[in-house]
Amino acid sequence: MKFAGIDLSEPKIMGVINVSPESFYKGSVRNDEDKLIETAVKMVKHGASFIDIGAKSTAPYLETQIPLEEEVRRAVWAIKTIREHVEVPISIDTTSARVAEEVLNAGANIINDVTGLKGDPEMAQIASEYNAPVIVCAHGEVKNLSDPIHTVMDFLQESLVIAEKHGIEEVAVDPAIGFLRPEWPPWYEWDSKVIANLNMLKIFGKPILVGVSRKSFIGAITGRKDPNERLPGSLSATAIAGFNGANIIRTHDVKETLDAVRMAEFIRRFAP
Ligand SMILES: Nc1nc2c(c(=O)[nH]1)N=C(COP(=O)(O)OP(=O)(O)O)CN2
Ligand SMILES: Nc1ccc(C(=O)O)cc1
To answer: Mind listing the pLDDT tens digit for each residue in 38-84?
Structure first.
Protein backbone atom coordinates (compact mmCIF):
# COMPACT_ATOMS: atom_id res chain seq x y z
CA MET A 1 0.00 0.00 0.00
CA LYS A 2 1.12 3.57 -0.73
CA PHE A 3 -0.04 7.04 0.30
CA ALA A 4 1.03 10.16 -1.58
CA GLY A 5 3.79 8.10 -3.15
CA ILE A 6 5.15 6.83 0.17
CA ASP A 7 5.45 3.07 0.60
CA LEU A 8 3.57 1.83 3.66
CA SER A 9 4.82 -1.74 3.85
CA GLU A 10 6.34 -0.58 7.13
CA PRO A 11 4.68 2.05 9.36
CA LYS A 12 5.71 5.63 8.68
CA ILE A 13 5.86 8.85 10.69
CA MET A 14 4.13 12.17 10.04
CA GLY A 15 5.85 15.01 11.91
CA VAL A 16 3.54 17.78 13.12
CA ILE A 17 4.47 21.46 13.12
CA ASN A 18 1.94 24.07 14.17
CA VAL A 19 2.07 27.73 13.20
CA SER A 20 -0.91 28.39 15.44
CA PRO A 21 0.10 29.90 18.81
CA GLU A 22 -3.18 28.67 20.33
CA SER A 23 -2.29 24.97 19.77
CA PHE A 24 -2.61 22.79 22.89
CA TYR A 25 1.05 21.74 22.92
CA LYS A 26 3.20 24.87 22.86
CA GLY A 27 6.30 22.80 22.07
CA SER A 28 4.79 22.16 18.62
CA VAL A 29 4.51 25.83 17.69
CA ARG A 30 6.96 27.62 15.38
CA ASN A 31 6.44 31.20 14.26
CA ASP A 32 9.94 32.16 13.31
CA GLU A 33 11.18 31.39 9.77
CA ASP A 34 14.56 29.91 10.74
CA LYS A 35 13.10 27.75 13.53
CA LEU A 36 10.37 26.49 11.22
CA ILE A 37 12.88 25.40 8.57
CA GLU A 38 15.21 23.91 11.19
CA THR A 39 12.37 21.86 12.70
CA ALA A 40 11.10 20.55 9.37
CA VAL A 41 14.61 19.55 8.24
CA LYS A 42 15.33 17.90 11.58
CA MET A 43 12.07 15.91 11.48
CA VAL A 44 12.98 14.54 8.06
CA LYS A 45 16.50 13.75 9.27
CA HIS A 46 14.96 11.84 12.19
CA GLY A 47 12.86 9.75 9.84
CA ALA A 48 9.60 11.61 9.15
CA SER A 49 8.06 10.51 5.84
CA PHE A 50 5.48 13.32 5.91
CA ILE A 51 5.26 16.79 7.45
CA ASP A 52 1.85 18.06 8.62
CA ILE A 53 1.36 21.79 8.98
CA GLY A 54 -1.40 23.17 11.20
CA ALA A 55 -2.32 26.85 11.00
CA LYS A 56 -5.30 26.76 13.36
CA SER A 57 -5.83 24.59 16.41
CA THR A 58 -8.78 22.18 16.35
CA ALA A 59 -8.60 21.19 20.04
CA PRO A 60 -12.21 20.60 21.10
CA TYR A 61 -11.61 21.98 24.60
CA LEU A 62 -9.86 25.26 23.63
CA GLU A 63 -11.07 28.60 22.29
CA THR A 64 -9.59 28.32 18.81
CA GLN A 65 -11.55 30.62 16.50
CA ILE A 66 -9.41 32.87 14.31
CA PRO A 67 -10.36 34.74 11.12
CA LEU A 68 -10.10 32.70 7.91
CA GLU A 69 -7.70 35.27 6.44
CA GLU A 70 -5.34 34.70 9.36
CA GLU A 71 -5.39 30.93 8.83
CA VAL A 72 -4.68 31.44 5.11
CA ARG A 73 -1.81 33.81 5.89
CA ARG A 74 -0.18 31.47 8.42
CA ALA A 75 -0.65 28.37 6.28
CA VAL A 76 0.71 29.85 3.04
CA TRP A 77 3.66 31.36 4.91
CA ALA A 78 4.53 28.00 6.49
CA ILE A 79 4.28 25.98 3.29
CA LYS A 80 6.30 28.51 1.26
CA THR A 81 8.91 28.67 4.02
CA ILE A 82 9.60 24.92 4.21
CA ARG A 83 8.74 23.73 0.70
CA GLU A 84 12.23 24.02 -0.79
CA HIS A 85 13.89 22.59 2.31
CA VAL A 86 12.19 19.18 2.50
CA GLU A 87 11.35 16.65 -0.17
CA VAL A 88 8.72 14.64 1.74
CA PRO A 89 5.01 15.18 1.06
CA ILE A 90 3.53 18.04 3.10
CA SER A 91 -0.03 17.91 4.39
CA ILE A 92 -2.13 20.82 5.52
CA ASP A 93 -4.29 20.32 8.60
CA THR A 94 -7.34 22.38 7.70
CA THR A 95 -11.12 22.13 7.52
CA SER A 96 -11.34 25.01 5.03
CA ALA A 97 -11.40 24.50 1.25
CA ARG A 98 -10.06 28.02 0.75
CA VAL A 99 -7.00 27.31 2.92
CA ALA A 100 -6.51 23.94 1.20
CA GLU A 101 -6.60 25.48 -2.27
CA GLU A 102 -4.19 28.29 -1.39
CA VAL A 103 -1.62 25.93 0.10
CA LEU A 104 -1.92 23.33 -2.66
CA ASN A 105 -0.95 26.19 -4.98
CA ALA A 106 1.95 27.04 -2.63
CA GLY A 107 3.39 23.49 -2.77
CA ALA A 108 1.49 21.38 -0.23
CA ASN A 109 0.56 17.85 -1.35
CA ILE A 110 -2.06 16.36 0.99
CA ILE A 111 -5.27 17.63 2.60
CA ASN A 112 -5.71 16.59 6.24
CA ASP A 113 -9.35 17.31 7.09
CA VAL A 114 -10.41 16.54 10.66
CA THR A 115 -14.05 16.91 9.58
CA GLY A 116 -13.62 14.10 7.04
CA LEU A 117 -14.89 16.16 4.04
CA LYS A 118 -18.09 16.96 5.99
CA GLY A 119 -17.21 20.46 7.25
CA ASP A 120 -16.67 22.66 4.20
CA PRO A 121 -18.97 21.66 1.32
CA GLU A 122 -16.28 22.74 -1.19
CA MET A 123 -13.51 20.57 0.27
CA ALA A 124 -14.12 17.37 -1.71
CA GLN A 125 -14.33 19.40 -4.92
CA ILE A 126 -10.95 21.05 -4.27
CA ALA A 127 -9.32 17.72 -3.42
CA SER A 128 -10.66 16.27 -6.63
CA GLU A 129 -9.64 19.25 -8.80
CA TYR A 130 -6.08 19.16 -7.48
CA ASN A 131 -5.92 15.37 -7.42
CA ALA A 132 -4.77 15.64 -3.79
CA PRO A 133 -4.63 12.66 -1.43
CA VAL A 134 -6.89 13.25 1.59
CA ILE A 135 -6.76 12.17 5.23
CA VAL A 136 -10.30 11.84 6.54
CA CYS A 137 -10.95 11.83 10.27
CA ALA A 138 -14.01 10.19 11.78
CA HIS A 139 -16.42 13.09 12.25
CA GLY A 140 -20.05 13.31 13.31
CA GLU A 141 -22.37 13.70 16.26
CA VAL A 142 -21.64 11.11 18.93
CA LYS A 143 -24.51 9.64 20.88
CA ASN A 144 -24.12 8.64 24.48
CA LEU A 145 -23.50 4.95 25.10
CA SER A 146 -22.59 4.34 21.47
CA ASP A 147 -19.89 1.83 20.64
CA PRO A 148 -16.63 3.67 19.89
CA ILE A 149 -15.08 1.61 17.08
CA HIS A 150 -18.38 1.02 15.27
CA THR A 151 -19.24 4.72 15.48
CA VAL A 152 -15.81 5.59 14.10
CA MET A 153 -16.31 3.10 11.28
CA ASP A 154 -19.74 4.52 10.40
CA PHE A 155 -18.35 8.08 10.32
CA LEU A 156 -15.41 7.02 8.17
CA GLN A 157 -17.69 5.14 5.78
CA GLU A 158 -19.68 8.37 5.24
CA SER A 159 -16.46 10.21 4.38
CA LEU A 160 -15.38 7.48 1.98
CA VAL A 161 -18.73 7.80 0.18
CA ILE A 162 -18.18 11.55 -0.24
CA ALA A 163 -14.64 10.92 -1.51
CA GLU A 164 -15.85 8.26 -3.92
CA LYS A 165 -18.61 10.52 -5.30
CA HIS A 166 -16.01 13.18 -6.10
CA GLY A 167 -13.58 10.74 -7.65
CA ILE A 168 -10.94 11.31 -4.96
CA GLU A 169 -8.52 8.46 -5.49
CA GLU A 170 -6.27 8.40 -2.46
CA VAL A 171 -7.76 8.45 1.03
CA ALA A 172 -6.29 7.58 4.42
CA VAL A 173 -8.63 6.91 7.35
CA ASP A 174 -8.09 8.32 10.83
CA PRO A 175 -10.12 7.46 13.98
CA ALA A 176 -9.87 11.05 15.30
CA ILE A 177 -8.37 10.37 18.71
CA GLY A 178 -9.39 13.13 21.15
CA PHE A 179 -12.07 14.64 18.93
CA LEU A 180 -15.12 12.46 19.66
CA ARG A 181 -16.48 13.20 23.10
CA PRO A 182 -19.86 11.85 24.19
CA GLU A 183 -20.97 12.39 27.77
CA TRP A 184 -20.58 8.63 28.22
CA PRO A 185 -18.24 6.81 28.02
CA PRO A 186 -15.70 9.49 29.02
CA TRP A 187 -13.45 10.45 26.12
CA TYR A 188 -10.32 8.80 27.55
CA GLU A 189 -12.19 5.50 27.66
CA TRP A 190 -13.58 6.13 24.17
CA ASP A 191 -10.10 6.79 22.78
CA SER A 192 -8.68 3.74 24.55
CA LYS A 193 -11.42 1.48 23.14
CA VAL A 194 -10.76 2.81 19.65
CA ILE A 195 -7.00 2.15 19.90
CA ALA A 196 -7.60 -1.33 21.36
CA ASN A 197 -9.82 -2.19 18.36
CA LEU A 198 -7.95 -0.26 15.68
CA ASN A 199 -7.38 -3.36 13.55
CA MET A 200 -11.09 -3.26 12.62
CA LEU A 201 -10.36 -0.25 10.39
CA LYS A 202 -8.40 -2.57 8.10
CA ILE A 203 -11.70 -3.55 6.52
CA PHE A 204 -11.65 -0.31 4.50
CA GLY A 205 -8.47 -1.38 2.73
CA LYS A 206 -7.05 2.14 3.14
CA PRO A 207 -4.00 3.44 4.99
CA ILE A 208 -4.74 3.97 8.69
CA LEU A 209 -3.34 7.16 10.23
CA VAL A 210 -3.42 7.75 13.98
CA GLY A 211 -2.58 10.84 16.06
CA VAL A 212 -2.23 10.27 19.79
CA SER A 213 0.67 12.66 20.40
CA ARG A 214 0.51 14.25 23.87
CA LYS A 215 -3.29 14.30 23.77
CA SER A 216 -5.62 14.83 26.69
CA PHE A 217 -6.67 11.17 27.06
CA ILE A 218 -3.04 10.47 27.97
CA GLY A 219 -3.21 13.30 30.50
CA ALA A 220 -6.40 11.86 31.98
CA ILE A 221 -5.03 8.32 32.28
CA THR A 222 -1.53 9.16 33.56
CA GLY A 223 -2.44 12.24 35.60
CA ARG A 224 -0.03 14.40 33.56
CA LYS A 225 -1.81 17.73 33.18
CA ASP A 226 1.02 19.33 31.24
CA PRO A 227 1.39 18.11 27.62
CA ASN A 228 5.17 18.56 28.10
CA GLU A 229 5.09 15.51 30.37
CA ARG A 230 3.10 13.22 28.10
CA LEU A 231 5.84 11.76 25.88
CA PRO A 232 6.11 8.36 27.64
CA GLY A 233 2.32 7.96 27.57
CA SER A 234 2.30 8.92 23.90
CA LEU A 235 4.97 6.36 23.02
CA SER A 236 3.04 3.64 24.81
CA ALA A 237 -0.18 4.50 22.95
CA THR A 238 1.80 4.72 19.70
CA ALA A 239 3.24 1.24 20.18
CA ILE A 240 -0.23 -0.20 20.72
CA ALA A 241 -1.65 1.64 17.69
CA GLY A 242 1.30 0.33 15.65
CA PHE A 243 0.76 -3.19 16.96
CA ASN A 244 -2.90 -2.93 15.98
CA GLY A 245 -2.22 -1.89 12.41
CA ALA A 246 -1.61 1.87 12.15
CA ASN A 247 0.30 2.63 8.94
CA ILE A 248 1.11 6.27 9.70
CA ILE A 249 1.62 7.82 13.14
CA ARG A 250 1.15 11.56 13.39
CA THR A 251 3.44 12.97 16.08
CA HIS A 252 5.22 15.97 17.58
CA ASP A 253 8.20 13.74 18.48
CA VAL A 254 9.51 12.07 15.36
CA LYS A 255 12.67 10.37 16.59
CA GLU A 256 11.18 8.72 19.67
CA THR A 257 7.96 7.76 17.90
CA LEU A 258 9.80 6.07 15.04
CA ASP A 259 11.60 3.81 17.52
CA ALA A 260 8.32 2.98 19.30
CA VAL A 261 6.53 2.09 16.10
CA ARG A 262 9.46 0.06 14.77
CA MET A 263 9.48 -2.02 17.95
CA ALA A 264 5.72 -2.57 17.72
CA GLU A 265 5.89 -3.56 14.07
CA PHE A 266 8.74 -6.00 14.63
CA ILE A 267 7.09 -7.73 17.58
CA ARG A 268 3.80 -7.84 15.68
CA ARG A 269 5.39 -10.09 13.05
CA PHE A 270 5.55 -12.91 15.61
CA ALA A 271 2.08 -12.47 17.08
CA PRO A 272 -0.36 -15.38 16.70
N1 LIG B 1 -5.63 13.63 10.83
C2 LIG B 1 -5.46 14.15 12.06
N3 LIG B 1 -5.30 15.46 12.20
C4 LIG B 1 -5.11 15.99 13.44
C5 LIG B 1 -5.08 15.16 14.58
C6 LIG B 1 -5.24 13.75 14.38
O7 LIG B 1 -5.25 12.94 15.34
N8 LIG B 1 -5.43 13.30 13.13
N9 LIG B 1 -4.87 15.70 15.81
C10 LIG B 1 -4.63 16.98 15.97
C11 LIG B 1 -4.20 17.53 17.29
O12 LIG B 1 -2.83 17.81 17.34
P13 LIG B 1 -2.20 19.27 17.17
O14 LIG B 1 -0.85 19.32 17.76
O15 LIG B 1 -2.28 19.67 15.75
O16 LIG B 1 -3.17 20.18 18.07
P17 LIG B 1 -3.94 21.54 17.77
O18 LIG B 1 -5.24 21.16 17.12
O19 LIG B 1 -4.17 22.17 19.13
O20 LIG B 1 -3.08 22.40 16.90
C21 LIG B 1 -4.78 17.91 14.86
N22 LIG B 1 -4.96 17.31 13.60
N1 LIG C 1 -7.07 19.00 17.88
C2 LIG C 1 -6.96 18.34 19.05
C3 LIG C 1 -6.02 18.75 19.98
C4 LIG C 1 -5.90 18.09 21.20
C5 LIG C 1 -6.74 16.99 21.47
C6 LIG C 1 -6.61 16.30 22.79
O7 LIG C 1 -5.77 16.73 23.60
O8 LIG C 1 -7.35 15.34 23.05
C9 LIG C 1 -7.68 16.58 20.55
C10 LIG C 1 -7.79 17.25 19.34
So the answer is: 999 999 999 999 999 999 999 999 999 999 999 999 999 999 999 99
In a domain, 210, yes or no: yes
Is there a catalytic annotation at residue 83?
A: no
Distance 271 CA to ligand 2 centre (A): 31
Work out the mean pLDDT of the chain and round it to a whole number. Answer: 98
Say yes or no: ipTM exceeds 0.95: yes
The pLDDT assigned to 135 comes to 99
Residue 3 in domain: no
Whole-number Å distance, alpha carbon 174 to ligand 1 midpoint, is 11
Which one, of 201, 130, 202, 203, lies nearest residue 166 by Cα?
130
Asked if residues 178 and 215 have their Cβ atoms less than 8 Å apart, the reply is: yes
The predicted model scores a pTM of: 0.99
Q: Where are the alpha helices (DSSP H) in 93-230?
A: 97-105, 123-129, 148-165, 187-196, 216-222
Q: Looking at the domain assignment, is residue 4 inside a domain?
A: no
- Is 215 catalytic? The answer is yes
Residue 1 lies in a domain: no
Q: How many domains is the chain partitioned into structurally?
A: 1
Most ligand 2 atoms within 8 A of CB, residue of 215, 217, 228, 229 to mutate = 215
| Beta carbon of 59 within 6 Å of any ligand 1 atom | yes
CATH number at 49 reads: 3.20.20.20
